[in-house]
Amino acid sequence: MIDLEVGKKYAGSAQKPADFDDFWERALAEMQALPLDYTTTAVPIPSRVAQAYDLYFSGVKGARIHCQLILPKNYDERQAHKGMVMFHGYHCDSGDYQDKFGWAAEGYVVLAMDARGQGGTSEMAAVPQGDAMKGLIIRGMEAGPEALYYCSVFLDTAQAARILMNYPGVDRERVYATGASQGGGLAIACASLVPEIYRVQVSYPFLSDYRKAYQMGAQTSAFEEIPYWFQFRDPLHQREAEIFHTLEYIDIQNLASRIRGEVYWSMGLQDTTVPPITQFATYNKITAKKHLLVLPEYGHEYLPKVSDQIRGFFIDADD
């Protein structure tokens, strides 16, 4: 188990590229040039409190991105509703529609995005060169930062937030981002690229501090694809400096300082899937108002009591 005080002082292993901010400004400009067009189709799931829809939009590189859109029943777009953009775990999808109905009952408009090429119906679009057998961090890595899979996915999160903020009846100044594991990393990326995000709630976010994860022996963690790539593509590590430099562009610790919304972060100190030290690399770089919930006996799993503890983060007294 990590020493908590050590974690709170950890500065991360990032070597942020000199052109990092310019790179993401160019990428955002590409995404923002896309139209806000989308299509919706009703999903016939019975509910007294919510109405579900499939929503599709066109993301960067021409990918067709799927989201679940959940509206309160008898939705009135003349009212100001809070919004919530949700992101799922690695290789999965957005889950069951009805899981979001409780938020609709609280008055939220929910947009849950399926990451391209994973368990949902969002498309992968262009397939970059290089090995991608073991995972998605390394997809596009051999072709350079612009080809990285997660560069496109981070932009998808920003575009989803942009669509939600402009949806009729949504209060664009009160949009939340939330997720766990990969979903937590995507929520952090979203709030970094769309600093207008009001609040962010994450559990044990993935996609942080690749160098440190590798140094710790990533073969048994969610970062296993990095040593796998070296084992089969570069066993002599002749491209090691190049590869880790490329991954810096999708390391969320390098984006975290852009966040302006309030953040609630929970982690289990026994986490071996996404080691807490890699999470602290990003958490410690967030300069916005933030809160940390730590469960010393838990790992990468359901964290009990957290949802009840942070309920007020979503349901304000003046709502």
UniProtKB/TrEMBL annotation:
Stored Pfam families: AXE1
InterPro entries, per the entry: AB_hydrolase_fold (IPR029058), AXE1_dom (IPR008391), CE7 (IPR039069)
Residue stretches making up the Acetyl xylan esterase domain: 4-313
PANTHER family the record matches: CEPHALOSPORIN-C DEACETYLASE
Name of the molecule in the record: Acetylxylan esterase
